[in-house]
Write a structure and sequence with these properties.
alpha+beta
Length: 251
Amino acid sequence: MKDAKTMAYINLFAVLGALPYLCELDREAEELIAGKTVSVGFAVKDGPSATLFFGGGKCRMAPGVDRCQVKLPFSSCEKFNGLIDGTVTPIPSKGFAKIGFLTGPFTKLTDRLSALLKPEPGALEDPEFFRVSTTLMFHVIAEAIAQTANEDKIGKFSASNIVDGAAKLSIAGGPAAALCCRDHRLLAIHKAPEHYMSYMEFGDMHLARDLFDGKVNAIAAVGAGQVRIGGMISQIDNINRILDRVAVYLG
């Protein structure tokens, strides 16, 4: 069963939070925001808040909505999740002069993100589309692990068994991230850490994709040496339990 608040945190920080990586990786996305300077804030009652900043052909996300030019308020986590599902159309409470960005480039940008995260049959046969799609999925999953650990009841239980320190997640020849634990809360850092207590590395991009899509059993992949793990194994064990919970939200 999904918790609406946890889903909202995942949707904001993991799904919409993938837009900065999309704009880095995908030429089509980069062209959509070229020359645009605007910030869009999402404020969810009793839930998360964050702002996407667009400028210089790049995008970044930061917590809070204090500095946003366009503010999109949501009366509940369910309403915000409806935005991601395409069932809710938000009305800005601030920044009506820039609404053209929302209805134009921003909508096209999120459509492009959806196309890459939920590809049509055959789309992954294109090598560049495959690379960008799989890299984005990696970042979404890494962030979703942290949000699930911090907000979901089952995820919190697993996080309560994780000792302080960083765990490195990576794809050989591809992206890397760190899940940093402090006081049983996780923070995702979307780059390789200098120091870490444990690690899990997928053998290559194709294996990672098959694991993300549920086509390969993770335990079997570890046994076959296709996924390397090491260090403090209890960290990885509990992260994998949280990852199983992430599948409920992103499945």
